[in-house]
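Subject: complex prediction, re-run

Hi both,

The earlier run crashed halfway through, so I resubmitted it with identical inputs.
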Amino acid sequence: MVFNIVFWDSLIVWLFISVAEAVMPWLTPKSIQFGVRIPPDKIGSSEVLEPRRSFVMVQLLIAAGAFLGLVLLPLIEGVSWLMTAAPVAVLAASFPNYLRVRRGLIRLKNSEGWFSGVSQQTFVEVQDGAEPRVNFLYMLPAVAVLLLTVVVGVDVYPSLPSIIPVHFTASGQANGFASKSSPEAFTGIIMQAVLLVMFTGIAAAVVRTRRSIESHAPSTSLWQQNRFKSIAARMMLLMSFFIGLTLMLSQFSIWGVIPRADAALTVIPSLVGVIGLTIPMMRAGQYGSRLKPSANEQGTGIANVDDDRVWKAGAVYFNRGDRAILVPKRFGVGWTFNFANPLSWLILAVIIALPVVLVLIIRFVH
Amino acid sequence: MLIRISESSGKPIYQQIRDEIVAAIAAGRLEEGAVLLSARKLGKELGVNYHTVNNAYNLLSSEGFVVLDSKKRVVVEPHELVTDEFKQKWRQSETMKIREGLAHGLSKGELKRLFAKFLEEA
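This time it finished cleanly. Structure:
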């Protein structure tokens, strides 16, 4: 079969990334467009909004090009695996398009001196205990999946042969075997536990991230970001459930509880989870910028400090004077690191290395 | 409770923090018993050194607007402020301000009007 499950996985990811990239200018706060800080009197003006259209047009072309590759490549023998690169291609081509539109905006901003004479102030919350709380009940689904995996394991374990397959080729042929008592035979359970701890940590961290208050509408933006942080924390906790499902399925197929399933099939719960859980965050907009407060706030006319300088290409935050580790993205939904803070690099390294190290330990410990 | 800080105003940041918190207490936006962020945390939120915030908190505490509780938290506690000593100091500084105004040629009638307006705005 040419259009196999890998094709459908790639198609879903392609669709999601294409849509997410194309609508991104609508998801960021109106005071930040294409990573450029906009003063209050220019917010919503045609010169700021117009470039979005040109961005979307090119995004559609990029998406269409990647789609062509996605459907044509499977027909060509030998290179069909390249179709999985279609979503990555969309991402890679989006960045130059973003930079193109951004350059135009910066040129306009500089030539017209948008920030000259504009009052720039920083608003800050001084009262303690105003952070949103994480509702840890959202961990329960992931805990349930972990428990289910363990309970089924206890049930089938005695009847397992002493040597079981633990690794499979893409086509589902077993090509790695281990003793059923080796840690390798429990990878799915160990990973679930580690991910649960990791996502809980991330959820607890994001609600504590620094507030980033829009000076032109401070109360509204504070309310919006608190809502956004709560939503994000919930989604992180639920994410460990969906990824847990994938790990449970792979653990079950190692134990032979379910027929050996294709890796591209077991990954579907994770795929559904990542996409499904990102959608509520996108609907809320970056830092809740699309959420409508019950009361309309009178604009203050005050701008945030023009901080374009500490955002390389409007996307990479590098600020030595800032102790913060996680800061809200400028062109995207969620957080990014302050790369001037060595702790950011350390955390990033741990997040990337953790699964790899874990797999290596599990594989070599016996 | 939001306060605002301007880097270009020329006023030192610690003074701005102090003034904003006093203004918030005066307007009833910060009530007695409200716990303020730790100096470290507020410094991080504002993107300034925590010593700057500490200076503001020390000032507020020496002026009797806040106290450090047993858990080292900064708590709004403005009531111990109304002592005879405070009234004495306050009268001296305000009397001097009035004299400055009169010396610059403001009439007593104008001063009354201005004070009524300031009282309204506070």
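Chain B has two domains: 13-79, 84-121.

- K.
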